[in-house]
Design brief:
2 domains; globular; 3-stranded antiparallel sheet; 5-stranded parallel sheet
């Protein structure tokens, strides 16, 4: 069982890569609220491929809570099975929050101990953050995203492609064109304040200078690393 003294991470997020578009906003809101989060998509970029497995094992061995996004795809993944077993071995089901997307039977069939963990159906980002906070008592900041964010939709064109991006809450500092090896690009700087800090965003719209290896929706985190 775990000891509070060796918890480097507040949360370890366990998920199947196909669910990344749901998991990423949850993980990023946890991090933005000051929590120490082990999130594979970021760790795989910070760690060399050969060090990723060690980094994952280190995160699993030094976390207070496991947040598991489960479904039958999750239960079928060898990597997810290992993560879940290590989380159960470390803290038991009482230290796991299960978020079902959707509620499918295979995970509980293979890991009966998980049935006593707190489990919730995923319905929205706000509800997921609220559910996590209700169990862990960590401040997930869900109230900050409950309201409808102001909309500031801006349009960009590049090589005949029209993009629509919402920059609600950001102040546009400047727009300009600049020539790059891959062609001209529309660029912009954005700024906003958050908890007394100044945040800056920089957007480039245009063709890439170098070809990237294709990454499919079915790739796992290691395949994403290879693609990048």
């Amino acid at each position: 069982m775990q000891s509070a003294s060796d918890n480097i991470y507040d949360v370890f997020v366990s998920y199947r890569s196909e669910d990344i578009n749901v998991v990423r906003p949850v993980a990023e809101h946890l991090m933005a609220n000051g929590l120490r989060v082990w999130f594979a998509e970021y760790e795989v970029l910070l760690s060399g491929r050969e060090r990723f497995s060690k980094a994952m094992a280190h995160g699993l061995s030094h976390c207070s809570w496991g947040i598991c996004f489960t479904n039958d795809r999750y239960a079928d993944s060898e990597h997810c099975q290992k993560e879940l077993q290590m989380l159960l071995n470390r803290g038991g089901p009482d230290k796991i929050v299960e978020i079902r997307r959707p509620n499918q039977p295979l995970t509980h069939s293979r890991f009966p101990d998980l049935r006593s963990a707190k489990a919730f159906e995923y319905s929205s980002l706000v509800e997921a953050l609220r559910d996590i906070q209700s169990v862990t008592q960590l401040n997930t900041g869900f109230s900050l995203v409950e309201g409808q964010a102001p909309v500031d939709e801006r349009h960009f064109y590049s090589n005949g492609i029209r993009l629509h991006l919402d920059f609600g809450g950001w102040n546009v500092r400047r727009h300009w064109f600049r020539w790059f090896g891959g062609g001209d690009r529309r660029m912009a700087d954005y700024r906003r304040s958050w908890k007394g800090n100044a945040l800056y965003g920089h957007l480039i719209v245009g063709p890439m200078d170098a070809a990237r290896a294709p990454v499919t929706d079915n790739s796992d985190d290691r395949a994403y690393y290879d693609g990048l």
